[in-house]
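Hey,
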Amino acid sequence: MFAILRRSALFAGLAFAMLVQPAIAQEAPIVSLEEALDLTGVADSATSSSSNPRIVGPRAESEAAQALVGQARLRPNPEVSLEVENIAGSGAFSGLSATEYTLAVGQRIELGGKRGARVAAAEAQAQLANLRADLAGAELGFLVRERYVAAAAAASRVGLARDVVERNEELARIAGVLVEVGREPPLRALRAEATLAEARAELQAAEANSLAARTALASLWGEQDTPPLVPGAFPNIEPPAAVLASATSLPLQVARGQSATAAAEIDYERSLRIPDPVVSAGVRRFEESNDSAFLVGVSIPLPFWNRNQGNIAAAEARLRAANAREVVALADFELTVTRARSQYLAAEARVETLSTTSLPQAEEALRLVRIGYRNGRFPLIEVLSAAEARDAIREALITAQEDRGQAAAELIRLAAQ
């Protein structure tokens, strides 16, 4: 009994953190799962209208990749050169009388399919950035559903803790009456009071956990003030009818996009092996005779040592790494789908059994024991045992509903396309 009292005192220390909770609860709005998804901007993740930083960042990366595609399509700029020769020399070349002016325009000619390979590599990068942006939207939707289910579970546990407090208040009152009339020993009343104190401490802890869960949910849309209230009733999250390990799933598309990008980089690096000539044409004027002459020229780098072999080898290694990651992603995806599906089905079966069979039976058993206790037919220990059994079933039901919601949210994320 004294151990219970000491434990109750420890739990009661949470009361200070919850002093303002009733006032907050009166001002906080109630939000549904659909409203939470709208506040987070999940519905606008496919467009640029969402202002959520979790979506804005990946979308900005996608826009940057698209801009680089346009940049890759541009051809090299022409070059203008001006040369002045035979100036300020000695003898016949003193002054400006023998000066020669040469004005030329040069243009680098890309060979070896450099421009096409560069554009293809940029387009692969842009496609990968788009897939990552879509995946970020799916991940955000998963976080909203996951945290909303957690907040609903926390609210349900608060309701359970309040029911336990109300029940223990009634039991403590009855125990006090029975002690006064001599039908129960004083120890029974002390135990009832200790159990009531522990239940109140558990309620305060449940309220603190609920506040933390709602704060985590509100942080997804940048709520900094009062976190919204979440009903204790779990939302109906329907998983996809079938989740298959196919290339249409976003995680696999991202893995395949990484391989495609690495392959495009190899083509681009290989195109750089071929040197680009620079063709120039211009005019030269001789100051001494006032004559002019046209000139043409071409310059070609000689690839004696640098044939871009290092960059090609690195790109080939990155392709092998990307292919390996794609295989691992496929295996992990299949495992995750199987695990999430089995968790959902198992939780669904537990919810069905607990809600339709176990809980009604425990409620009826507790009702009968409480009636017998009021009439002096059962001791307090029987009531507490029946109540603890019922509370354990309610807690198991909350856990099963939470597991079912989390698994459904995971399946929705895995099915995103």
